[in-house]
Structure formats: structure tokens, C-alpha cells
Known about the structure:
The chain is about 10% helix and about 45% strand. It is mostly beta strands. The protein has three domains: about 20-235, no CATH class; about 240-340 and about 475-480, Sandwich (Immunoglobulin-like), CATH 2.60.40; about 340-470, no CATH class. The strands form five sheets. Strands 9, 10, 11, 14, 15, 19, 20, 21, 23 and 24 form a ten-stranded mixed β-sheet that branches.
Amino acid sequence: MKHCIMCKEQHRREVVMNGLEAMDLIEEKYLEEALGKKYRRKPAVVYWGARFAMVAAAAAVFAIAFTGVVNCFPVTAYAMSRMGFLGGLAKAVTFDKSMRSCLEKEYAQYVGEKKTAADGNVSEIHCMVVDASRISIFFQTDVPENGRISYGTNGQIEDKTVFDVELQEGLAEYEYTSMMVNTDVEHLYEYRMDFMDKKIPEKLGFRVNFYEVEEDGGEKLTSHSDYILYPDTRYAKVVETYQVNKSFSVEGQKITIECLEIYPTQAKLLLHSDKKNTARLNDISVALYDDKGRKYEQNRNGTVGTYEENGNLAAKWYESSYFTDTDSITAVIDSVEMIPGDKRYGMISLKNQSIENMPEGVSIKEMKQEKNGQLKIELNVPAMDNKWISIMQWDYIGKEKAEDDDVNFVVSGKGMTGEGEREDSIISEHETDGVIVGKEFLTGKNPSFDETHYIPDYSEGDYQAEWLYAPETKLDTPVTVKIK
Length: 484
């Protein structure tokens, strides 16, 4: 799904506070020298009370040091970050190594704005972490997130109020995906926006909505708090690009690693499949290692990849090496997921209770035509390499139907089954308009997944499946590509 934000107004919020104005001026002196290098950007907006003026003035001394040593060793940076607010926040973000590194380095844009809604509910935005690939808004509220209400032993709803968030600005120019990510601290959240085109908006209207939970589980909007945020667009310049342009063959298919883009929050590995390839590259397992033996994992929450228009994988997103002291990076490929061109589509037949070209491991649990004429198809697939992805989508290929709104209309729902306690984790991935978004869930052992499709007004011979699932194939000999 594409989301866009048009910022026509050029505006910079100025806040003058006891000792922090001097801190801003000092950091501006070093800004131009820092652009294009690894640096800690200055806080654009800070809301602290006068009683913190002396602490803020002292922090100005450390600000100069951070500008010069943002590329220092993590242990040193973490010790220094403990002097400020972000040290504590970094400890809460253990789920994302890149984000934690940003906070430890004080690579953040402070906000520190707290608001009380009309019904008394309180929210506070602590800071933003910004670069050309992502904006993360860290905020806090004691109200539970929408969809996460708890029930007492008597079955009664315990949480009487929940919240959700939304953006208030018009959608026009910037392509991004968004999701809510929980941290390791209760009531502290990250609202994450991943950008596709190295552009970030200059202004964001961020709203926290509060709802009253009714006895039947319904929700009634009772209040909201609005924040106007100004991400510093100069963060978009903070990126390192390493051109690779090296090709290799896997299962007879030629794949090229074009380049690696490294941002403070994550890294993007760009791929290209040769136009002569006969199979669709559904996914590829690539691990990144540096000269110190550190491994950079693929993203697990947020954007995890993108597809080309022809359906081939175009990019994978990873943890960032931006703040590490690495001299080289190597890619190691050990498995692929490919769909042969002649197996990508298959006819759907209620009469034969079958779908052609079903991938290995996929089975039909149920296929029946219901009273209203729609066809129900329930598919099952075992967990594949700890991922949960869409199995198929269907298309109408029959003769044109007059005034038929159901042509190419897809409805699918997923269910998950597993044995035992929640001991394993799984990555749920879905793709919209070529962007792959992932989210990590805890599951029982040996999970399998069901996917249900409904085809309205089904007629025999008029529908085909497009398979999106491919079993993983391990390579006998891993492929190694030097990137940096």
C-alpha cells in the first residue's frame, strides 16, 4: 500500500529555552562538516522545563564530543549516552539492534512533548529517529493499544480505554509503509514509517486517538491529542552506498547484487534477476557478515523487502552496520525460494476438487460452493523457514461479465495452528504494491498455516490461481559475494 505526505509549507519550529539555545548554536557550527559523514544530528525540538536548564547546559559539552566521535566504539558511545535521556530509552529497544545503536549514539531528534486529552488520557512523544529510509516516533501512554484489551477471570473486559494512532497530513508524495512496534518497556511504543525513495516529509501531523471500550467489545472515540512534528530533512543525506554489480547463478537462474545502501537505522541490499531467467525469485536467504565476524540479520519488523514489477525479489532490508567499526562486508547466500515459470499459475476446478501446479507442501483442506454461490477454498501449508506468507491469489480469466464488481476481487484470511506453549517465533510477511512488510509473532511448536479464499459467483473453468508460495531449497555450496 502506498502512503504519501505532501509538505508545501516550509516551516521550522524554534524553541528558545534557558541553556539549550546555546547548545543548538554550537551544534550548528559543526553541522555542515558532519553532513555526508557519520554524525549525531542536533535536536530540532526540545521541551524540557526550566528546572533542567543546568543539566541541559552541561549536556552541551558532551554534544560537541558526540559530533566528533559518533563513529567511536559502541561501548564508549553507550557509556557516554548514559549521561542523557536516550541511554535509558536505548535499553528498552533490545528487539532492534540498529535502532538501539542509534539511540546509544544519540542519533535522535528530541521532541519531549506531553499532552492531556479532553477526557484526561495522557500521551507523550519522547523523540524521533530519522533517516532517508525511516522515521520512528517513540511515544508513551498508559492506555493499552487498540486490539490488545485484557479480560478478567470472570470474562469481563478489564481495559475500559484503548488507543490507536493516525497521521493527519494529506497523502500525496512520499511512499512509505507503517506499523506499530512494541518495545521492552510497558506502554512505550514505536510508530515506524519505512520510506522507499530516500525522501522524508518536513512536517507530520501525528494524532493519538482514545476510545472507550463498551460492554460488547465495541469502541467509541472519546478524545484525541494532536502533535505537529518536523523531521529534519537533512537526515535524508545520511546514507552510504557501496556499488557491487556482481552476478552469480543459483538453480540455473542468474541474479545480480547491484549495491548495498547503509542507513543508520537499516541497510538495503538491491538485487536484480536476469530477464532470461525462467523462474520467479520469490525469496533468497542472504546473510551479511563483517570483518569482525558480526552477522547482520534481516529485518523482522517493518519493511523486509520489495518486489520488481515482474514479481521478482528486488531488495532485502537488514540491520545496519552504520555505527560499527567495520572495514568489509560479505554476503553469503545459502538458500532460495523460486517458482518455475510454467508452475506459477494453475486452473481452479471445483468439479475435480483440485488446483493445478500446487507447490510442494500445499494441500487443500476444503473446497466447496456455498449457498450464495461463492466458492470457499481453504489451503494449508507447513511453516517454511520460520516464515508465514501468502500462499496464493486468484484471478478471473473467463469471458467479460457485465457489471461484475467481483472480477479480480480477492478476499483471504489466515489462521495459525501450533502445538505446545509459545516457544518459537514466526515472521508473518505480506506484500502490497511490491512492498513486503513483516512482523514477528510467538507461536507453538511445529506451526502450520491455513489460508481461506472466497470466490464470489464461481463458475467452472473461469478462475486460476497465482502461486505466491515456494518451498525453500538449500544450496549444496553457499555462494559468497564480497560487497565492501
